[in-house]
Amino acid sequence: MTAPANWYPDPTDSSILRYWDGTAWTHHTHPVAPAEPIANEEPLSRRESRRAERTVEAVHDVPAGASTESSPDIPFFGARKVAKELAARVAELERAQERYGMLELTELDSEKSRRRAEIAEERARWQHDVTTRTEEESARAASSRAVAAEIDDHIALRRRELEDVQSQIIGVRQTIDIQELGLYDYEHPAEASADLATRLEVTRSRIKAAIRDKKAARASSGFTFNGSEAQGRKFVSDMTKILLRAYNAEAENCVKTVRAGSLAVAQARLSKAAEMIERQGSMITLTIDPEYHHLRLTEIQLANQHLQALAREKELERARREELREQRKAEQELAREHERLDKEKAHYTATLTALEANGDLEGAERLRARIADVERALHDVDYRAANIRAGYVYVISNRGAFGDRMVKIGMTRRLEPMDRVNELGDASVPFRFDVHALFFADDAVGIETMLHQTFSEKRVNRVNLRREFFYVTPDDVLEVLRAHSVEILEFRTEVASEEYLASVTPTTGA
């Protein structure tokens, strides 16, 4: 077993170990452990390890000032072993001498420190290399994962594109099949309507579904041709396609030709086409499915509703323009009247000054009365210009054009309200209007609105509310005015209708 470091056999006594401090022998000694019996002898390396451990323990237990004389003697047994250990130690020292020479202890410590520093530096370099390689591997792994994710995304995108293309192909094929039966995506009037576009889209989707599912028409399933059921099925299929194509073409024409007031005509035309197809396909019991026919009629109805809405909008726009023209005329008349009254007042004022200068008191008093009248007229003009609700309410009729039970109820802000009545009867009707009532009111707009609402259920034109004709008699209007305590000086329920009577008298006499 090898002795602890710096403990060597004593040159003078082989039975003890003495401590070498690197420069000289010290007085620290320790006896060599006796050898164990041969029968219980352990392997050399194990026995040497235990002996070295016991030697180190003994060395550590030796006091610092102990002398060599206090160490126990080497036992008799084990001398051969000690000799072997000493020989091994001498060999080790020789190798150390060859390597380091006879260096001083401080040099050995320096060498040890340098070696440790080299080892630490090498370990740090190794750890840095390992860390760097680990980071590089992590970066490469992350990059690989990113590339893999990008590839997966690209693959998913291409799959979605492929699915879209496949869906488009299916849609195109279905469109071709539908178009073979005469159903096309033509421009429908209701497509531009915010209210009807959704209903139209739903209706068209149901129409296409019926075509796609072969539910638009019904035909016999047991028909045979030349004794062959296969030829019979082909004959039924071909005839169904031909007649259904004709029906769909007629439905499209009905949609394109329908007008605001011709819904019933267009729907009757399509129903007649369905009946004709049923007669022509009687051999194979071919009929247009009632639900499909209802969908096509609904399609025509939606087109008609949109056209009616456009017609109403045009009528309202025309009425608004007419109302604006009427308002501008009233404003211009009021402005001209105001200018005329201003000039008249200025003229009277200048004349009054001259009369007062000449001492004509009586003439001056008459002019002051005229100036007061002019000022009242100016005040009235200013009031009517500022109060847009003030004006004249009129109730007129035209017996020759509309009969005895129809009147027109309106209002005007003109200074001369009969100008407005005469304009209404200039070219639009064959005879002039007869006036039943024409009176001024501070709230002419309110009175007109009240009368219109009262007779709303008896309007002649319920599309354009500016067409102010009602199926009522002058007596009905007078009764409502009295019920609402409207002040009116004159109301004539019976009128002369001179032009009309003069026109029909010769005919009656003949």
Short description:
With 510 residues, this protein is of the alpha+beta class. The protein has 13 helices and 9 strands.
Q: What is the secondary structure topology, with strand pairs?
A:
Blueprint: E1 7-9, E2 16-20, E3 25-31, H1 44-61, H2 79-100, H3 105-180, H4 197-212, E4 217-218, H5 229-257, H6 263-280, E5 287-288, H7 290-358, H8 361-386, E6 391-397, H9 399-402, E7 407-412, H10 417-424, E8 434-441, H11 444-454, E9 469-470, H12 474-483, H13 498-509
Antiparallel strand pairs: 1-2, 2-3, 4-5, 6-7, 6-8, 7-9
User: How much helix is in the residues?
Assistant: 55-70%
Biggest sheet overview: 4 strands, antiparallel
Gap from first CA to last CA: 165 Å
Strand content: 5-15%
For the CA atoms, what is the radius of gyration?
A: 63 Å
Counting DSSP E segments of at least 2 residues, the number of strands comes to 9
Overall mean pLDDT: 78
Q: What structural category do the secondary elements indicate?
A: alpha+beta
Shape: elongated
- Identify low-pLDDT runs: 38-45, 55-72
Strand arrangement, major sheet: 8-6-7-9
Secondary-structure element series: EEEHHHHEHHEHHEHEHEHEHH
Total of DSSP H or I helical runs spanning 4+ residues: 13
Notable characteristics:
13 helices; 510 residues; elongated; single chain; alpha+beta; three-stranded antiparallel β-sheet; 9 strands; four-stranded antiparallel β-sheet
